[in-house]
Design a protein that fits this description.
The complex is a heterotrimer of chains A (263), B (428) and C (303). Chain A is of the alpha/beta class. Chain A has a single domain, classed as Rossmann fold (3-Layer(aba) Sandwich), CATH 3.40.50.300. Chain A has ten helices and nine strands. Chain A has a six-stranded mixed beta sheet, with helices on both faces. Chain A has a three-stranded antiparallel beta sheet with strand order 2-1-4. Chain A is globular, with a radius of gyration of 19 Å. By secondary structure, chain B is mainly α. Chain B is elongated, with a radius of gyration of 32 Å. Classes of the chains: A alpha/beta (263), B mainly alpha (428), C mainly alpha (303). Chains in contact: A-B, A-C, B-C.
Amino acid sequence: MKIEAKDPVVEFHDLTASYDKKPVLWNIDMTLPQGALIGIIGPNGAGKSTLIKAAMGLLPLASGYVRLFDRPLDEVRRRVSYVPQRETVDWDFPTAVLDVVLMGRYGRLGLLARPGKADREIARECLRKVGMEAFARRQISQLSGGQQQRVFLARALAQEADLYFMDEPFSGVDAATESAILSILQEMTAQQKTVVVVHHDLQSAAEFFDWIVLLNMRLVASGPIEKVFTPDLLQETYGGKLTVLSEVGELVRKRQIPSREKY
Amino acid sequence: MERLIEFLSFRDPSVLSVTIGAILLTASSAVVGTFTFLKKKALVGDAVAHSVLPGICLAFLLSGTKNPIFLIGGAFATGWISLLLVDKISMRSKLKEDTAIALILSVFFGLGILLLTYIQHSGNAAQTGLDSFLFGKAAALVGQDLLVFGVVAVVLLLAVTLFFKELKLIAFDPAFARALGLPVYGIDLLLTTLTVLAVVTGIQAVGVVLMAAMLITPAAAARFWTDDALHMTLLAATLGALSGLAGAFVSYAAPAMPTGPWIVMVVSVLAMLSFFFAPRRGIVSRWFQQRQLQHTILDENVLKALYHLGEADDDMFRDRSLEQIIARRFFPRRPLRRALQRLQRRKLVQRRNGTWRFTKAGQQKGQRMVRLHRLWELYLSRYLEIAPDHVHEDAETIEHILTPELEQELARQLDFPERDPHQSKIPS
Amino acid sequence: MDAFYIILTATLIALSCGLLGCFLILRRMAMVGDAISHAVLPGIVIAFLVSGTRDSFWMMGGAALLGIFTTFLIEFFHKRARLQTDAAIGVTFTWLFALGIILISVFAGQVDLDQECVLYGEIAYVPLDLWITESGKVLGPRALYIAGLVLLINISFVYVGYKELLLTTFDPTFAASIGISISLWNYLLMGAVSMTTVASFESVGAILVVALLVAPPATAYLLTDRFPALLAATAALAVAISAGGYYLAAWLDGSIAGAIVTVAGVLFGLAFLFAPRHGLLTRRWRQRRQRQALAEAAAGYRE
């Protein structure tokens, strides 16, 4: 089941992505619509994070390409924001909450430029939106998991992008943070911004998203939630891996096959 | 050369004892190093190595003698303390392990240097020789020194032999070891003690500064030749012993030279050779494997092209010119000719006045390639729901690696199909 | 005056090292710094043999290139030979360092370097090697100028690339996502580390420079919670250990570099135990007080 988006903002074209030469995502080919809250759903090891990393050019692609706003990534970087998983950074890093949010402005500054007054104002405003303005000067190691996630969201907001890729923003957060984040994301999509979220909880997925991408090493389905969120498709996504696919992937890695041959 | 022969004849009994000593010391530290390497704690050895210096100096200051037992005791004490501190700092503060290691090794070494220079400047006559612990001096391995260091080395080797199974297990899978009910903490403690002991014995030959190499390099080199822990340990010991032998020779031929750097140089060169030329894992052999693979892929593509030509005019065994093959599928001429020659050697094609044709075996092989290609295309379009116009490229790669078992499995899952997504026939 | 020159030189070097060290420890690359400082040795010796002097810019440049080469070699062994990282570091730097020592002993006659200098430098001789202009004017110790120049270069580097260095250290994936090249800034930083270790070599030797790279930043990290404060505390520590080390060495009649490092170690130990928020003992005391307060409150509640 694959439904193409009208006026897509994200286009994956026949994309195969590998870790250490082993393909973990096969032939992803789909388009995603503007102004939607999009959930990428699938079991562990399905390649959900890999998909958005590939979209952000953080992994070398074995084949295929991604176009954002119908352009290559490098031409539209400022319009795109990426929120890594919370666990990927060292929260003992000696820095304050506001400084982390200010990092969202770095992409707009030249080599020597420092964030100015206007940037600070924007950063504070973003902190206010996520309900963390009281923590601006707090050291980041003192934050709870949910607060860390809000700070990351504030940093993404400070980028003032049109398209957001977020890796598990709801993982390990408290209920209050969950609804706070959700309402911000909904507000963003109301302003025609597109938000792509990697999500692992099926239960909440049904409530959160307008558009669902079902993934398990390959694309199972992509489309509006009412069409895609069906028992059959979910069964297909979660009903075990395609063993052939993982075995072939392992063979590719073992034999160090070049991803595309010369002739 | 003459000197080398003279050295190897061991006419001088002291040469023999120095050589045996050096070999024993380097081999035993290489053996222990194998386990720290496998535990991915190689650099911890570096911290211990540097940290024994203040111990040696303190022992000398307190005892006033160069008696090896005292010095070994001092070295053992500070070496142990350093490991403890590295652990404490990385567990009990926000500093990470690499910082803890670098910090402890440099600070302990600095303290050692301060003490050493203090001893030197205070003009104690007996101190000459302490600095041979810095870069090693195998030639000094005589009499009582040899005896003491030798005994420690033998104890070390015995301990490893006795606890080989346990050490292997905790290096490989500590969680599993704990599940088995092994005293993981105790074995860890044993390995730590052995590491400190290995450093303490090695320093006479290699010196504290480069001692880390004796723990890391032989093990790293051995890893490239084998996957078996026992073989790896033995090989590391052999490489260590070889470098020890070289060290003893340097000591004999150029008594003024420090032996440590030479020992390290020899073992490093052996390691680099392993990194590059070891079968299977070495960089060069992997490069060859890669090239081999490229050839296989090219050859199989040529077979496929011949099969497609045959399919088109319903005659598999017609003579084909290079031009015809290239017209069917583009290949540069030279690689194509080479591929055909390789195929001829494998009796898959025959050559007749400049043209090529399938043999029976070649036709079957070409048919299998085409079958695999189309099976995979069908699999992608059926199970991954990929549009028929997107499946070809991927199948181009995968056809080369599918095993007969996977072929069977694909055919079964696809219900023994006859046509691929492009409606071409899937040959059986 | 000699004491002043020595302490000033040591301070300038410690400032350079500490500045870069702050980034190294936060990037978990302290041992790579250690490896580089060892591995530049053969570069120094070869440059010495070629140029015949100790303080040419050729020598610095050549040796610094070797430092970057070391970083590359470690990556190469790790990626191409698939050697685990810790072993790749260990094999690379011990090999290059051994090569350096062998070169020194083989060319002992031609090279004005010895093992002592390699191990702990000759900062005591700094005031003896003066920079005298052609007109005969004495401008002060040459090493002082080199250390000053290197510090200037390092400060400009960190000033220009502050945002990029900070971001690639804190959150490299995010940095890459906004188009900052992680490997470019990594190599630039390693280049700066190489240059600094080469310049520090003469004064403190190849091994003790590691302590200057790691100990003050590690100490400062336990005392501060913000990056600018970390830099400031590191700088203050650099001054303190240089002066303290000098007087300790004078008192014991030992190596100045060794004494500086010893003082740095002692200060770290104090911070590790007694730092206001992160100290081991302070945390323990705080917990005990909290437990007591809790117990008292509970007792009061029962009554």
